[in-house]
Design goal:
CATH architecture of the largest domain: 3-Layer(aba) Sandwich
CATH topology of the largest domain: Aldehyde Dehydrogenase, Chain A, domain 1
Mean pLDDT: 95
CATH superfamily of the largest domain: Aldehyde Dehydrogenase, Chain A, domain 1
Structural class: alpha/beta
Largest sheet: 7 strands, mixed
Oligomer: single chain
Number of strands: 22
Bound molecules: NADP nicotinamide-adenine-dinucleotide phosphate, magnesium ion
CATH class of the largest domain: Alpha Beta
């Protein structure tokens, strides 16, 4: 393999990459010619692809090249109405009536088809979203299939999930998802809803709708009864029309806290059930007794995975004071070795930022960090001329009240803070409106348990970070939302118990 490698010394004096010799890999591009991205996608309503009533389509691009990949239909209020009516009809006529073991078979079929088509789905996810192919190939797509497998298993066992209760579906679910894990978020939403006997209208994010429509093709191939799953594309207005449609019984939303609050306000006083999975500003807490090299890898994975477009990203690093200097030194070296660039290259660690708007948001917050007096370290790597890119970055000397310590950046930017005692770590870690996730690094099991009890976070990782499993519930406290997805808990929002 050494022939594939070449060393190149392009260290900039004073740059973050320090004295480590940099290794560069020859490009290893994933092929794209086997992927069928249609030039235009219509709405998936009632089991068919139909033109939008609006007669409008919008372009969707590859954020790594800014090239147009396809155009997606823009659903207006009439289209939303059509989709909800089809979902209602399917609910009354078929889905609520068929044997739960039959529902399970359909869901298994979707899982199997995702596995069969995983290569094309991974490439499409990477082209439309900007994430490295090694992530979409090894994380997003396998986990999406795993969620359908997991919930298929529950479909005919609901009386064991909720013993001594009568379990009924809620009805028609409206589901709205963000752009950071497009197919995986669709799987998180659809699988438990279908398993519990609900029908669905799903709206993906406008910048990353392609794999949702590829999933619609899979759902057609799996021969689901028409109308059980409807997938409608569009921008925020399409989402709002779905939220406010009187025919929807439940709304499940994953996205920003700002939009989540707006949805909660507009549903107040209605019969609709609601779950919200919103933003985060997770603390990743490293004690002096932690295995430092392992922790550095966990910190890197915690913040730079998926360009930091992760609601549970470990975006606030809390270091015990005695290890500040060695850990910061190792972080400087490590970010210099992250490969930033073409997401289709199998060696790429950090891909493209999902959109120009998101890039501008990151830039604005990073400028505020420098203005508020924090010290910035940035990888000196080169980035492509076209597309949306942001170099892996971290700040030291961050004031707890500064914007970069309080606001969600949703990009590859880490804020480093310090603490002396476990009590101080807990107090500082909990000092945010969010409460989605946290990480704790220490040799001491008893300390892990104590920290886990006191941290106000839905998910706590110990000596690891960003690990996901369909059997494990996920969700937040405070302004990170309410309701859980995954595991047995993930069925609760989709059932009525009597
Ligand atoms: P966003 O702007 O809130 O959008 C999320 C979804 O809602 C998109 O499909 C969006 O459509 C739609 N939408 C926008 N305005 C709407 C409205 N008024 N009514 C109904 N739907 C509306 O969030 P984002 O910027 O796409 O995603 C990033 C955010 O999601 C971050 O804050 C992140 O923390 C959060 N997130 C949370 C989790 C979790 O599980 N807790 C997981 C992933 C992401 P358009 O795309 O067309 O705008
Ligand atoms: Mg948006």
């Amino acid at each position: 393999m050494t022939s594939q490698l070449e060393t190149r010394d392009r260290l900039t004096p004073g740059a973050a990459s320090s004295a480590l010799a940099e290794w560069h890999y020859s490009p290893s591009l994933e092929a794209t010619d086997h992927v069928k991205i249609q030039p235009r996608y219509n709405l998936f309503i009632g089991g068919k692809f139909v033109e939008p009533h609006s007669k409008r389509w919008f372009e969707t691009i590859n954020p790594a090249t800014e090239e147009t990949l396809s155009e997606m239909a823009e659903a207006d209020a009439e289209d939303v109405d059509r989709a909800v009516k089809e979902a209602r009809r399917a609910y009354e006529k078929t889905w609520r009536k068929i044997a739960p073991s039959e529902r399970a078979k359909y869901i298994y079929r979707i899982a199997r088809l995702i596995q069969e088509k995983s290569r094309g789905l991974a490439v499409a996810e990477t082209m439309n979203g900007g994430k490295p192919i090694k992530e979409s190939r090894d994380v997003d797509i396998p986990l999406a299939a795993a969620h359908f497998f997991y919930y298929a298993g529950w479909a005919d066992k609901l009386e064991y999930a909720f013993p001594n209760r009568t379990v009924s579906p809620v009805g028609v679910a409206g589901q709205i998802i963000p752009w950071n894990f497009p197919l995986l978020m669709a799987a998180w939403k659809l699988a438990p809803a279908l398993a519990a006997g609900n029908t669905v209208v799903l709206k993906p994010a406008e910048t990353t709708s392609i794999t949702s429509l590829m999933l619609a093709e899979i759902i057609q191939e799996a021969d689901l009864p028409p109308g059980v799953v409807n997938i409608i594309t569009g921008a925020g207005a399409t989402g709002a029309a779905l939220v406010n449609h009187a025919g929807v019984d439940k709304i499940a939303f994953t996205g920003s806290t700002e939009v989540g609050k707006r949805i909660q306000r507009s549903l107040a006083g209605t019969h609709k059930k609601l779950t919200l999975e919103l933003g985060g500003k997770a603390p990743n807490i490293v004690f002096e007794d932690a295995p430092i090299d392992q922790a550095v890898e966990g910190i890197i994975n915690g913040i730079y995975f998926n360009q930091g477009h992760v609601c549970c990203a470990g975006s606030r690093l809390f270091l015990q004071e005695s290890i500040l200097e060695p850990v910061v030194r190792k972080l400087r070296e490590r970010i210099g070795t992250l490969r930033v660039g073409n997401p289709l290259d199998k060696n790429t660690d950090v891909g493209a930022i999902n959109s120009r708007a998101q890039l501008e948001k990151i830039q604005e917050l990073v400028e505020s960090g420098t203005e508020e007096g924090a010290e910035i370290f940035q990888s000196s790597c080169s980035v492509p001329d076209r597309g949306f890119w942001f170099r892996p970055t971290f700040f030291t000397g961050v004031a707890a009240s500064s914007r970069i310590a309080q606001e969600e950046i949703f990009g590859p930017v880490l804020s480093v803070l310090t603490f002396r005692t476990p009590e101080e770590a807990i107090e500082k870690a909990n000092n945010t409106p969010y409460g989605l996730s946290a990480g704790v690094w220490t040799e001491k099991g008893s300390r892990i348990l104590k920290m886990a009890q006191k941290l106000r976070a839905g998910v706590i990782w110990a000596n690891t970070y960003n690990k996901f499993d369909p059997a494990s519930p996920f969700g937040g406290y405070k302004e990170s939302g309410f309701g859980r997805e995954g595991g047995l808990h993930g069925l609760s929002p989709y059932v009525v118990l009597t």
